[in-house]
Design goal:
The protein is an alpha/beta fold. It is about 30% helix and about 25% strand. The chain contains 7 helices and 12 strands. Helix 1 packs across helix 7, helix 2 crosses helix 3 and helix 5 packs across helix 6. The N and C termini lie close together (about 5 Å).
Length: about 250
């Protein structure tokens, strides 16, 4: 990459991988890195470098931002389930002819002793629960609780970073917390609340994976909501190092 002028890279972030990528690129004089956060968390963990917070106003707004700020490369390092912003990024990058990479951590894979039930959506996960148990540990985030709001026969332990808003399940206890978590802590939580079923999204994060190991040790069924596929035709990297290598090649 040329040393001057600096090439502008926009990272759509909010994930651990996005923060690590920003750190990895921070000491590269040939790059000017901006990280964009959606602003849905009250106190987000901020990456190093320049940060913008808030939406773009759809694909058209993002394309306009890319033009106005002369972005040379776009990296979508959002959560694997943030399919709306990923779709907007795909359209905006195509409109402005900016190279785009999706940074997606690998998904979880069941192993020996796991009792997983796959669901294509939160609504499908909710339909599975009456046949699996009554005391549910729900770790799908605060944004999708409406899918479980009509279940009156189940009690939910909900863990999220910020407090959820209605509609929510009528029988519910909320824990405000964020990872990383430990196997010991997750196992104790399952025992203390007499959990019978774990519900989670296939986020693939190491920081939240101990709950799966704790559920396996307790022989509990786990409902895993499948992640949406990455946008078609977009190259995918699984680690920040792979993303940085793609960037070096793309902007060479």
């Amino acid at each position: 990459m040329n040393s001057a002028p600096a090439r502008h890279v926009l990272i759509l972030g909010g994930t651990t991988e996005a923060r690590r990528l920003a750190e990895e690129l921070a000491d590269t004089p040939a790059l000017r890195v901006t990280s964009s956060l959606a602003g849905r968390v009250a106190a987000p963990r901020l990456p190093v470098g320049q940060v913008r917070i808030g939406g773009f106003g759809g694909a058209e707004g993002m394309a306009r931002w890319l033009r106005e700020h002369q972005v040379d490369a776009l990296i979508d390092a959002t959560h694997p389930f943030a399919d709306t912003i990923s779709s907007h990024a795909t359209r905006a990058a195509a409109d402005v002819h900016v190279p785009l990479l999706a940074l997606r951590r690998p998904g979880w894979v069941p192993g020996p002793g796991d009792h997983w039930h796959s669901a294509g959506s939160l609504a499908e996960a909710a339909r599975l629960l009456p046949g699996l148990g009554e005391r549910i540990f729900l770790t799908t985030g605060r944004m999708g609780l409406a899918a479980f709001a009509r279940l009156t026969g189940q009690w939910f332990l909900v863990r999220s970073v910020d407090a959820p808003e209605p509609p929510v399940p009528p029988r519910m206890e909320v824990i405000l917390d964020r990872g990383p978590f430990t196997f010991e802590g997750e196992a104790e939580l399952l025992r203390r609340h007499r959990i019978e079923v774990l519900v989670t999204k296939d986020s693939g994060a190491h920081a939240t994976a101990p709950k799966l190991a704790a559920a396996r040790a307790a022989a509990l069924p786990v409902v895993v909501v499948r992640r949406p596929p990455a946008p078609q035709g977009i190259p995918v990297a699984e680690t920040p190092a792979e993303a940085a290598a793609w960037l070096r090649t793309t902007l060479a």
